[in-house]
Amino acid sequence: MLVLLDFPVRAEIRSLSPFVYKVEALLALSGCDYRKEDVLDVAVLPHGKVPVLRDGDRIIPDSTLIQRHLEEHHGLSIDAGLTELERSMAEAFRQMAEEHLRWAMIHARWIDPAGEPEIIEMIFGTLPEAIRRDAFLQVREALRQSLYMQGIGRHAPEDIYAFGCRDLDAIATFLDDKPFFMGDRPTSVDAFLAGLLLNMLSSRIDTPLTHHARAIPAFADYVVRFEREVFGPRAMLPAHLAEAAAA
Ligand SMILES: N[C@@H](CCC(=O)N[C@@H](CS)C(=O)NCC(=O)O)C(=O)O
């Protein structure tokens, strides 16, 4: 059985990492037997990051490499019906969301003080209360440096949010009223977009980015539709989102 590694968290959604969400969705879409395992020792992660997939003796880091492994060895073929032009569009949107929009989301969660209570509860909630905030501050400092090195962290918060909101608008425009990003059926680009939007919409963090995501009604329908289509009876959705989509 394949094993998907993730950090342990307390959340109403299947992962706080849109990259892990993407891999779990791809595993489900490929029909593989898999289980998830919490990472207790980061030394088992080749790049120090999740997701990591264990397939027998093989340890595969990075969601894109895992996708390739599933396509080559486990029959994942959800992108087979796309034309070359559609593939290039999907790739551009995936890269925008993975390498740009996600940094705005990291800013909202970890750097903006608005994110602190939720992150401490979801990620450090199992630690003794006396050390939770210190643990949070340590990770926040590391992420502040990552944001700075990436470049987005050198901007004022209002500009970071404006960049993120533009990405959300681009996604909404392309999604339009289609059931899934590339048409009637889920493809791999949905796996990341739905995971990232689900993370934004399920969060109680109050920032211009999360406000903007909530103000686009098509997003709630989209993430609920994706989660139900891919995971069926195992769908995991916060009640307010499931109700909003049913209304
Ligand atoms: N390019 C990687 C990105 C993975 C990634 O950034 N994972 C984050 C969680 S969303 C992580 O593990 N961060 C821990 C760290 O940077 O220390 C992929 O596609 O898998």
How would a crystallographer describe the biggest sheet? 4 strands, mixed
Gross morphology is: globular
Structural class: alpha+beta
Taking all residues together, what is the mean pLDDT?
96
User: What is the number of independent domains?
Assistant: 2
Helix content: 55-70%
Give the beta-strand count: 4
Which short descriptors sum up this protein?
247 residues; alpha+beta; Glutaredoxin; Glutathione S-transferase Yfyf (Class Pi), Chain A, domain 2; 2 domains; 10 helices; binds glutathione
What this model shows, in words?
- Helix 3 runs antiparallel to helix 6 and helix 4 crosses helix 5.
- With 247 residues, the chain is of the alpha+beta class.
- A four-stranded mixed β-sheet has the order 2-1-3-4, covered by helices on one side.
- It starts with a strand and ends with a helix.
- The chain is globular and about 50 Å long.
- It has two domains: 72 residues, Glutaredoxin, CATH 3.40.30; 163 residues, Glutathione S-transferase Yfyf (Class Pi), Chain A, domain 2 (Up-down Bundle).
- It contains ten helices and four strands.
- The longest helix has 28 residues.
- Bound molecules: glutathione.
- The site of glutathione (GSH) has 9 residues, from helix 2.
